[in-house]
Amino acid sequence: MTWREGRVGAWSTNRVFKRSAFALAEVMLGVLIFSIGIIALGRTVSNCVNASALSADDARVRQILANRMIEIETTPGQPDKSKEFKIDTGFGIVKLVQKAAPQEMKEKDGTELTGIIRVTLTANWSRGGSNQSKQIVFYVYRL
């Protein structure tokens, strides 16, 4: 073996080592990009699950408010001035607060309208440690 052959062999071995190191760096970069994608996908799924749960809570509370509004509208007599309910939805307690007050209204010509009552229904509940609230205001006519 001549000096030249030995030198070429060393150069060839060094070249193979550099290519292997480059391939390892490519694989590590690929794994890094893949793991960032998986983490982003996991956060996206988590956000979708939270949004779905909030939407379901909102739908339940809207249904509770609508049911109470229909009860007030169809019940003869004056609505209670102040009343509180605690409703167990199976997913937590919803506190429903009802307030009613006479509403003074006038026609364009100045004639006072009587018997109109402004009713405010407020639902309060807790979701994920934060307090949530939804309110509806409507009018009923009673003589």
Q: In words, what does this structure look like?
A:
This protein is α+β, with helices and mostly antiparallel strands and 143 residues long. The chain has one domain (3-141). It has one helix at residues 3-74; strands at residues 82-88, 93-102, 105-106, 112-113, 116-127, 130-141. The strands form two sheets. A four-stranded antiparallel sheet has the order 1-2-5-6, covered by helices on one side. Strands 3-4 form a two-stranded antiparallel sheet. The chain is rod-shaped and about 100 Å long. The relative contact order is 0.11.
Short description:
The protein has 143 residues and is of the alpha+beta class. The protein has one helix at 3-74, and strands spanning 82-88, 93-102, 105-106, 112-113, 116-127, 130-141. It has one domain.
Shape: rod-shaped
List the strand order in the largest sheet: 1-2-5-6
- State the separation between the terminal residues, measured CA to CA: 118 Å
Detail the poorly predicted runs.
none
Radius of gyration: 35 Å
Count the DSSP helices.
1
Largest sheet: number of strands, sense, barrel closure: 4 strands, antiparallel
Structural class call reads alpha+beta
Integer average pLDDT: 87
Roughly what percent helix?
40-55%
**Residue fraction in strands:** 25-35%
- Work out the count of structural domains: 1
Structure summary, number of beta strands? 6
Order of helices and strands: HEEEEEE
